[in-house]
């Protein structure tokens, strides 16, 4: 399938893919790159009917010195991209790794004796920009290269609960994001370049990466849905809230968008045990995907992740080992079969989603910094009202309080009814 070069898809054509976790060595495979093993992994991904993968070069492996971006590593990324293309898979590349599965991967030139702020130090920012530009440029002529994601949840470095955060203001975070995306665009003009944060951006009052950053900067809005964030613990594994969490984030993101039809990419979602027990993972996957595909303007769904983590690798949180749709030896798990079936049904049987005409008011305080955004988090008034409406059979979206009486804004989004959390019982 050819890359879409940043053009928003029609409502009938969301993309379906996986976050590629190599079966051989996890992301440490870049240290002992084995193209044959990668090809075998990608064969097992393509066999499930997916059309794209999101891949993760490890930043310190690719750029061990600020002025050294290893040509051999870049060649290996290109080889992986070509192998994916041979199997009908498009590729999105996350640049700054950054953070993966509880581990931080930062190059030595940003830590200890060279400790510098990742978001504001001029030399670090210049080095990051050149790195992203280089990766994008290396893939710019590949027809199956979708584009760059700046990094994987790199906002986790910017504040609590990180043990050694790189403090940044919301204004500085926005400036940093724009500079990184400009570098991606210089390397590969016209591709789908974006950034992606974990849900502190939507749920944590004082977090410097804001909902407005996510919904207004970059080609699409990315959301990452993880029900171990308190959703499954508070509401239960089989609750409406757990099944609808990803769909909620998709619709919540639309409140901050300036373009009425801005696409939203569910870039990460998975079934983490024990919050989602193994015997329920397939049911959870089906319920989650069905809920998300009832949301208009979904760019795509990218499951986390392709293959389980090898248990010979130490010190991962327990839930990280079993998130794959396939085992480490590439056997399809029940959740893998469920996701593949959900994709098949969407492509062959499921009608396009109708517009969501009821909007729930999101009042998070004045300005773009959303100082009271915790009302959107699990347990918050907006979250609970959204889930009550959904359980009652409604199909809500969201609207910022400042737009709740703006007739032009509501009309552009197809909203015909506005309710506040206090209206929902």
From TrEMBL:
<keyword id="KW-0614">Plasmid</keyword>
<feature type="binding site">
    <location>
        <position position="153"/>
    </location>
    <ligand>
        <name>N-acetyl-D-glucosamine</name>
    </ligand>
</feature>
<protein>
    <recommendedName>
        <fullName>Glycosyl hydrolase</fullName>
    </recommendedName>
</protein>
<feature type="binding site">
    <location>
        <position position="99"/>
    </location>
    <ligand>
        <name>N-acetyl-D-glucosamine</name>
    </ligand>
</feature>
<dbReference type="InterPro" id="IPR017853">
    <property type="entry name" value="GH"/>
</dbReference>
